[in-house]
Amino acid sequence: MTTAIDSLTILHQRHHSPNPSTTMMPHSASPLRRQCSLLALALILLSAASAMAAAEFPAFREAPAFRNGIDCPKAVTATADPSTIHIAMTLDASYLRGSIAGVFSVLQHASCPENIVFHFLAAAHRRHDLRRVVSSTFPYLRFHIHRFDSQIVRGKISHSIRRALDQPLNYARIYLADLVPADVRRIIYFDSDLIVVDDVAKLWSINLGPHVLGAPEYCHANFSTYFTDRFWSDPAFTDSFKGRRPCYFNTGVMVIDLQKWRDGKYTEKLEEWMRIQKVHRIYDLGSLPPFLLVFAGDVEGVELRWNQHGLGGDNLQGLCRDLHPGPVSLLHWSGKGKPWRRIDSRRPCPLDSLWAPYDLLRHSSLFSDN
């Protein structure tokens, strides 16, 4: 098979090698021939670049079509329709396999899957390729891909204890209210390393009351570990929790009232703590601590079943962990260990077998999708 490099070589030889049939051409034809050659060269380079970009993404099997039950409201295209459930996730090459599994799990357990709209946040230069992957995997999915400009956070990110936490897309959730359409007033944010094993409509329907966001809270966790000694030794910082009883919550599962977020200018409040962090180094855990500083103690508590987190182990070793006691609606591999990587390395943890059925990766070694 002729490669892009072979084609370039042939084109170069044709352009520079003497050819009796061309030596008799009038001199005026030479610029036209040169322009045609350059155009052909540009097309070949563009085709090769597109092929290389597409090759970076794995291939996935097509998911089955999921249809609404007879009791579901009719799905409509209007963004602000009250029967529509809006879910936001990030998309990138590193976590694409996890995102695809997460979407598949949501649809499989939803009572009204056609009433779900996904809002994917992605870097500008990858949106076209990512749209192709999502469309081919979920032909019936209602989704949008929103451009996230990483330059917005380049100067605000501080080095954390794990490199993955420093990626600009990890901070996209801070700008969610600005990225999705203004008539989307409520949204669920999901990380890309989780699966849902219950009807997401139950999570969607929680009453946020006066709060901006809802999430499972873990008040037994040692809250002091999420900030440095520099933070706890300065009343100017610790007074930010005055009047609140702060509890840890994981930002990988949140139900957000976007209208209250916009009205309260919460993006600016989170950014302010990121600027303080650049100067004083008050935490070590990426985008999580600013959320704790702004919202902890002012969160609508959600049942713990909606975030069985920490299945990826800690942020350093990623060791295997067990489930927390109690019922399960969502499994979350937060931490260093990701199930698809452990499965590929043939060193899976026991709970990774619960993620595997939602893995739509098309394995090249198999003869069929079965």
Automatic annotation (TrEMBL):
It holds the Pfam family Glyco_transf_8. Keywords: Glycoprotein, Glycosyltransferase, Membrane, Signal-anchor, Transferase, Transmembrane, Transmembrane helix. It is an enzyme of class 2 (transferase). InterPro entries: Glyco_trans_8, Glycosyltrans_8_dom-fam, Nucleotide-diphossugar_trans. Residues 1-27 are annotated as: Disordered. It comes from the Eukaryota. Its EC number is 2.4.1.-. It is found in: Endomembrane system. One of its GO terms (molecular function) is glycosyltransferase activity. Pathway: Glycan metabolism; pectin biosynthesis. The keyword Transmembrane applies. Gene3D superfamilies: Spore Coat Polysaccharide Biosynthesis Protein SpsA, Chain A (3.90.550.10). It is a single-pass type II membrane protein. The keyword Membrane applies. GO terms for cellular component: Golgi apparatus. Belongs to the glycosyltransferase 8 family. This is Hexosyltransferase. It comes from Trapa natans.
